[in-house]
Amino acid sequence: MKKTTVKMCGFQTSEDVKKAIPLSPDYMGFILVPGRTRTVSHTTLQNLLQHVPDKSKRIAVMQNPSFQDVAALMHAVQIDGIQLHGNESVLFCREIKNHFDLQLIKVFHIEEGKPVPLVKEYLPWIDVILLDYANKNKRGGQGVSFDWRQIVEVKNQLPSATLPVWVAGGLHRGNVGALIDQYAPDGIDLSSGIETNGKKDSMKMRQLIDEVSRVDEK
Ligand SMILES: O=C(O)c1ccccc1N[C@@H]1O[C@H](COP(=O)(O)O)[C@@H](O)[C@H]1O
Fold first, then answer.
1. 184: CA distance to ligand 1 center in Å?
2. Cα(59) to centroid of ligand 1, in Å?
3. Does ligand 1 come within 6 angstroms of the Cβ of 31?
4. CB atoms < 10 A from the CB of 185, how many?
5. What are the transmembrane regions (predicted)?
């Protein structure tokens, strides 16, 4: 049976993290990008991590960090991986992978009217390819989907046995079924689609997990 990996992202309060306990998502993400609505500090992150279910991997989301930013994070908190959600280079990914024992999720942005991103050179240095919508002003957490036909174009660049490809951008309980049915991503990642009025919504989170299981079991 297929098992689509689920990453739930953008937790800011212990109350919201606790809503994930009965669901144990495969991954839980925390935003460390300065100045965004879901941003948390190292101190808050440290407190939130106490409530993360044992089975869920803990991911810090960063955008164009310096090597020192990553080192400071690693010194402050115990995490399983980082998601690089900016324009990080192949060399930067290599440096991070060589220095830290971290799972590295690299985001590749799908922008309207732009060629599909080139992922091949990154493959030795990353663990997951994550595709997300972007426009020229903002990246991540916008609740907007990209043209999923681009998933096929990215997969066509990859050798047959290769890294998992995850999809993000405007996903919710109402569209993940179609995404999995049509494009079979290895994983999905979402922030906005499991929230109501800026707070994580237990019902939406549960329905999302149920919908993924339903489609996986088909
Ligand atoms: O969630 C955020 O606020 C965020 C901020 C900065 C960078 C990444 C962010 N989240 C990631 O964005 C995508 C899509 O989110 P959405 O479901 O469309 O809201 C996902 O990869 C999140 O991990």
1. 20
2. 12
3. yes
4. 24
5. none
**pLDDT value at residue 192:** 97
5-216, which class in CATH? alpha beta
The answer, yes or no, to whether residue 161 has pLDDT greater than 80, is no
Q: Where are the domains of the chain?
A: 5-216
Q: Model confidence over 88-128: pLDDT tens digits?
A: 999 999 999 999 999 999 999 999 889 898 999 999 999 99
Rounded mean pLDDT of the chain? 96
Q: How far does residue 106's CA lie from ligand 1's centre (Å)? A: 13
Encoded amino acid at 152, one letter: V
Give the pLDDT score at 32.
98
Match 């990642």 to its residue by tokens.
189
Atom from ligand 1 closest to the CA of residue 9:
23
Residue from 106, 191, 196, 200 whose mutation best tests the ligand 1 pocket (most atoms within 8 A of CB): 191
Tell me the two tokens of residue 181.
Answer: 């049915």
With CA atoms as reference, report the closest residue to 173 among 210, 216, 217: 210
pTM (whole model) above 0.95: yes
62 lines ligand 1 (CB under 6 A): no
- Give the distance (Å) from ligand 1 centre to CA of residue 9: 7
- Does the interface ipTM go beyond 0.90? yes
Report whether residue 191 contacts ligand 1, using a CB cutoff of 6 Å: yes
141 and 36 Cβ atoms separated by less than 8 Å:
yes
